[in-house]
Amino acid sequence: MAGASHYTLPLPEFDQPVKLLIVVAPYYRDIADDLIAGAKATIEAVGGSWEVIEVPGALEVPAAVSTAWRMSNFDGFVALGCVIRGETTHYDTVCNDSSRGLTLLSLQGCCLGNGILTVENHEQAAVRADPQDQNKGGGAAAAALHLIALQRRWGAPKGKIGFRPLGETIQLAEGGDRA
């Protein structure tokens, strides 16, 4: 069954290099490998660099992205994985909670693309992951790249959106000694 055609934005151009972290849950290794291949190719198409880390499952992806965002020098993040519906409600929990965690990070200023597939079966996942077909890994990388370009366009210094930089003190009241 063919999907509807859709418009894809051209990839942004960068004056300064970009470095992305690809965080993948490789529960379905063949699907993960295709998602990673698509993400790498898209990042390389803009002259960017990447690193890949693996986490046990889709629920750990937001935690890994959050930690890396606070503690590393990456410009953006690509979240990859696959959740296939099973016989229990665990599918709903994993899909909703991993997506919610990534969305909250995005809303705080973390430049990331969500490429965690949520599908009914392996065949759907294979089509979506294939870099020569729907290329959802490449699409997630492109989303992160577009957000990085927006932050650079608007002059947001790294680490100044969302979480306060480590060591910054918040003054709650004037005067008085602080313990």
General description of the model:
The protein is an alpha/beta fold. The chain has one domain (19-155): Lumazine/riboflavin synthase (Rossmann fold, 3-Layer(aba) Sandwich). It has helices at 29-45, 61-71, 90-107, 122-129, 136-153, and strands at 19-24, 49-54, 76-84, 112-119. Strands 2-1-3-4 form a 4-stranded parallel sheet, sandwiched between helices. The longest helix is centred in the middle third of the chain and has 18 residues, at 90-107. The protein is globular. The termini are far apart. 36% of the residues are buried.
List its salient traits.
riboflavin biosynthesis, about 180 residues, four-stranded parallel sheet, about 15% strand, alpha/beta, 6,7-dimethyl-8-ribityllumazine synthase activity, globular, LS, single chain, Rossmann fold, 4 strands, 5 helices
Main sheet: strands, sense, barrel: 4 strands, parallel
CATH architecture: 3-Layer(aba) Sandwich
The secondary-structure class comes to alpha/beta
Whole-number count of domains? 1
From the spread of the alpha carbons, the general shape counts as globular
